[in-house]
Amino acid sequence: METCWILSVALAALYPGAVRGDSIQSQDPEMSRGEGDAVTLRCSYSTSDQYPYLYWYRQYPNQAPQYILYRGARSSSSHSNTASFAQKRFSSQADDSTTVLNITALEPEDSAVYYCALWVAP
Predict the structure, then answer these.
(1) Tell me: the pLDDT tens digits for 5-26?
(2) CB atoms within 10 A of CB 4
(3) How far, in Å, CA of 99 to CA of 9, rounded?
Protein backbone atom coordinates (compact mmCIF):
# COMPACT_ATOMS: atom_id res chain seq x y z
CA MET A 1 0.00 0.00 0.00
CA GLU A 2 1.41 3.37 -1.04
CA THR A 3 1.27 6.44 1.21
CA CYS A 4 -0.62 9.45 -0.12
CA TRP A 5 0.79 12.80 1.04
CA ILE A 6 -1.71 15.61 1.39
CA LEU A 7 -0.73 19.24 1.94
CA SER A 8 -3.58 21.71 2.38
CA VAL A 9 -3.10 25.43 1.84
CA ALA A 10 -5.65 28.22 2.05
CA LEU A 11 -5.81 30.66 -0.82
CA ALA A 12 -7.93 33.78 -0.62
CA ALA A 13 -9.29 34.44 -4.10
CA LEU A 14 -11.05 37.73 -3.60
CA TYR A 15 -11.89 40.38 -6.13
CA PRO A 16 -9.25 43.12 -6.44
CA GLY A 17 -9.58 45.78 -3.81
CA ALA A 18 -11.46 43.66 -1.27
CA VAL A 19 -10.99 45.23 2.13
CA ARG A 20 -14.02 43.90 3.99
CA GLY A 21 -12.07 41.52 6.19
CA ASP A 22 -12.82 38.41 4.13
CA SER A 23 -10.47 35.55 4.99
CA ILE A 24 -9.95 31.81 4.58
CA GLN A 25 -7.55 29.51 6.42
CA SER A 26 -6.61 25.85 6.15
CA GLN A 27 -7.26 23.78 9.28
CA ASP A 28 -5.26 20.72 8.17
CA PRO A 29 -1.84 21.90 7.02
CA GLU A 30 -0.33 18.48 6.30
CA MET A 31 -1.32 14.83 6.54
CA SER A 32 -0.63 11.42 5.09
CA ARG A 33 -3.02 8.54 4.55
CA GLY A 34 -2.75 5.14 2.96
CA GLU A 35 -3.93 4.20 -0.49
CA GLY A 36 -7.64 3.32 -0.31
CA ASP A 37 -8.25 5.46 2.80
CA ALA A 38 -10.52 8.49 2.98
CA VAL A 39 -9.50 12.00 3.96
CA THR A 40 -11.34 15.20 4.89
CA LEU A 41 -9.67 18.59 4.40
CA ARG A 42 -11.10 21.62 6.22
CA CYS A 43 -10.87 25.36 5.73
CA SER A 44 -12.46 27.98 7.93
CA TYR A 45 -13.55 31.24 6.36
CA SER A 46 -15.09 34.56 7.25
CA THR A 47 -16.94 36.93 4.95
CA SER A 48 -19.68 39.51 5.11
CA ASP A 49 -20.76 38.59 1.57
CA GLN A 50 -24.22 37.03 1.36
CA TYR A 51 -23.36 34.73 -1.56
CA PRO A 52 -19.76 33.52 -1.22
CA TYR A 53 -18.39 30.64 -3.29
CA LEU A 54 -15.82 28.16 -2.04
CA TYR A 55 -13.42 26.51 -4.47
CA TRP A 56 -11.02 23.59 -4.16
CA TYR A 57 -7.96 23.02 -6.34
CA ARG A 58 -4.99 20.67 -6.23
CA GLN A 59 -1.49 21.16 -7.57
CA TYR A 60 1.25 18.72 -8.49
CA PRO A 61 4.91 19.81 -8.45
CA ASN A 62 5.85 22.07 -11.37
CA GLN A 63 2.27 22.14 -12.73
CA ALA A 64 -0.57 24.64 -12.74
CA PRO A 65 -3.33 24.20 -10.15
CA GLN A 66 -6.10 21.80 -11.20
CA TYR A 67 -9.72 22.78 -10.52
CA ILE A 68 -11.64 20.21 -8.44
CA LEU A 69 -14.96 21.83 -7.53
CA TYR A 70 -16.85 24.83 -6.23
CA ARG A 71 -20.01 25.30 -4.23
CA GLY A 72 -22.09 28.12 -2.88
CA ALA A 73 -21.50 28.50 0.83
CA ARG A 74 -24.97 29.52 1.91
CA SER A 75 -28.32 27.87 1.24
CA SER A 76 -29.44 30.76 -0.95
CA SER A 77 -26.37 30.20 -3.17
CA SER A 78 -26.43 26.42 -3.46
CA HIS A 79 -24.88 26.30 -6.94
CA SER A 80 -22.06 23.81 -7.37
CA ASN A 81 -19.88 22.25 -10.03
CA THR A 82 -17.41 19.36 -9.95
CA ALA A 83 -14.70 18.53 -12.49
CA SER A 84 -15.35 15.30 -14.37
CA PHE A 85 -12.33 13.47 -12.88
CA ALA A 86 -13.58 14.28 -9.35
CA GLN A 87 -17.25 13.35 -9.57
CA LYS A 88 -16.99 9.87 -8.04
CA ARG A 89 -14.51 10.36 -5.19
CA PHE A 90 -14.55 14.08 -4.29
CA SER A 91 -17.32 15.94 -2.48
CA SER A 92 -17.68 19.12 -0.48
CA GLN A 93 -19.93 20.62 2.15
CA ALA A 94 -20.00 24.12 3.59
CA ASP A 95 -21.68 26.03 6.37
CA ASP A 96 -21.43 29.66 7.45
CA SER A 97 -17.80 29.36 8.57
CA THR A 98 -16.26 26.10 7.30
CA THR A 99 -15.85 24.18 4.07
CA VAL A 100 -14.65 20.59 3.76
CA LEU A 101 -13.31 18.53 0.88
CA ASN A 102 -13.89 14.78 1.21
CA ILE A 103 -11.80 12.38 -0.87
CA THR A 104 -12.64 8.67 -0.75
CA ALA A 105 -10.57 5.68 -1.86
CA LEU A 106 -7.30 7.61 -2.04
CA GLU A 107 -5.07 6.86 -5.01
CA PRO A 108 -1.36 7.67 -5.38
CA GLU A 109 -2.21 10.50 -7.80
CA ASP A 110 -4.14 12.22 -4.99
CA SER A 111 -0.79 13.14 -3.43
CA ALA A 112 -0.73 16.89 -4.03
CA VAL A 113 -1.02 20.34 -2.51
CA TYR A 114 -4.71 21.19 -2.03
CA TYR A 115 -6.00 24.76 -2.04
CA CYS A 116 -9.27 26.11 -0.74
CA ALA A 117 -10.32 29.48 -2.09
CA LEU A 118 -12.99 32.02 -1.22
CA TRP A 119 -14.63 34.07 -3.96
CA VAL A 120 -16.92 36.98 -3.20
CA ALA A 121 -18.72 39.17 -5.71
CA PRO A 122 -17.43 42.68 -6.38
Answers:
(1) 665 554 544 444 455 677 777 7
(2) 21
(3) 13
